[in-house]
Amino acid sequence: MKIAVFVGSIRTGRHGRTIGQWALDQLQARGDGHTYELIDLAEQDLDQLTAATPPIMAAGNYDEPKTIAWSETIKAYDGYIFVTPEYNASMPGTMKNAFDLLKVEWEGKPVGFLSYGGGGGVRAVNHWRDVVNNVGMQPLEAQASLAFDDHFVDFQFAPNDTTAELLEAVAVELVKVGEKISVNA
Ligand SMILES: Cc1cc2nc3c(=O)[nH]c(=O)nc-3n(C[C@H](O)[C@H](O)[C@H](O)COP(=O)(O)O)c2cc1C
Which of 1, 50, 122, 156 matches a 20 to 30 Å C-alpha distance to 179? Predict the structure, then answer.
């Protein structure tokens, strides 16, 4: 399987990239035969969703070159780990826009959450669960929610054994669900 670690925050000085890179390193170190790659939203050239045809009606056929490229990027993966902060009790708007641009590319695939924030980003993930369900993804039960008090020191990401265990639980379920889907496909 090919699994993307999708970093969804793009602001200057963000923690998202550091957390995503750490997660990628952890996942690759599992040596489980699956391929893990990073998609950093800050490195993607995307527009705001302005297409006349809603992605749910487009069936994967887009007119906008940037959306076509984004579609190619996302559809190459069998599963995802969304690295999501919590902004105003939800996911970042930029990340939601990137998600909304597509539909069939996400459909049917497993998605796990690695969230962070004062309260671990739990409210962002609660919203994400509704969003990903809406396009027919398979959200995992395991969830790695990193509260600043427990996984950061002096406002810097400082992963410990518990951080790694939380991510590992997501990885185990992602691989299990993903392999089941591949077999049944
Ligand atoms: C616009 C904005 C809103 C935020 N709202 C919340 C919030 O509702 N709950 C929370 O725990 N943290 C909140 N935070 C703090 C972020 O979770 C924290 O800054 C985190 O590092 C953001 O991720 P990033 O560094 O990858 O951008 C907010 C931050 C921003 C920029």
Answer: 122
Pocket of ligand 1 (CB under 6 A): 9, 11, 14-16, 85-89, 117-119
Instruction: Check pLDDT > 70 for residue 185.
Output: no
Q: Tell me the pLDDT tens digit for each residue of 113-143.
A: 999 999 999 999 999 999 999 999 999 999 9
| Residue nearest atom 28 in ligand 1 by C-alpha distance | 87
Which residue, among 41, 20, 25, 28, has the nearest Cα to 2 in the 3D structure?
28
Mean pLDDT of the chain: 97
Split at pLDDT 50, 70, 90, the class of 77 is very high
Ordered by start, the domain boundaries in the chain are 2-184
Which residues, 6 or more positions from 146, have their beta carbon under 8 angstroms from its beta carbon? 19, 114, 115, 116, 120, 121, 152, 163, 166
**Atom 22 of ligand 1: nearest residue by CA position:** 85
| CATH topology (fold) of 2-184 | Rossmann fold (3.40.50)
How far is CA 119 from its chain centroid? 19
Q: Are strands 156-157 and 152-153 parallel, antiparallel or unpaired?
A: antiparallel
Q: For residue 20, report the phi and psi dihedrals to the nearest 5 degrees.
A: -65, -40
